[in-house]
Specification:
The protein is an alpha+beta fold and 149 residues long. The chain has 2 helices and 10 strands. The strands form 2 sheets. Strands 1, 2, 3, 4, 7 and 8 form a 6-stranded antiparallel sheet that branches. The N and C termini lie far apart (41 Å).
Length: 149
């Protein structure tokens, strides 16, 4: 049982580590919460991660990863559940609504959503987060350009 927990924790850490070297940001919001977000091409994820989280690897697919933590300092924070809604808009004003899935793995809590991309597509993401579903929403916006090999 301990090995299984360590394995699950290792996969969660691997997924977060892989996504961390690709544009990753942390935003501190009111009430001592942190929102961590990043978006990346699914081609960089390992086969184990793809299989475990039922993600399709494709040069034309990307993934948004969101996690919410509570604490005074990010290094001493604990993951919490949240209501997460995400969408992206490209330069042609085409809207992509992302279906965000809750992933709980070995103490880690995060939300992932996949979406189609094209080469050199620049997306503006709007992520609405309600930490611990307390009815207090926070919005994070960021832009990212994707490249397809």
């Amino acid at each position: 049982m301990l090995f299984k927990k360590l394995w699950h924790s290792s996969l969660a850490v691997l997924l977060l580590a892989l996504t961390s070297y690709v544009m990753a940001e942390d935003v501190k919001i009111e009430d001592g919460y942190f929102i961590h977000y990043n978006a990346l091409n699914t081609t960089i994820l390992s086969a184990d991660v793809l299989k475990r989280y039922k993600i399709t690897r494709s040069k034309n697919r990307a993934m948004l990863n969101i996690s919410v933590k509570k604490g005074e300092k990010l290094t001493q924070s604990q993951p919490v559940k949240a209501k997460v809604i995400a969408q992206a808009v490209n330069l042609n004003k085409q809207l992509k609504t992302l279906d965000m899935r809750l992933i709980e793995d070995g103490g880690a809590i995060y939300y992932i959503g996949t979406f189609a991309i094209s080469n050199e597509e620049k997306l503006t993401f709007t992520v609405t987060v309600d930490p611990e579903s307390k009815g207090k929403e926070h919005e994070v916006k960021f832009e990212q350009q994707f490249f397809v090999d």
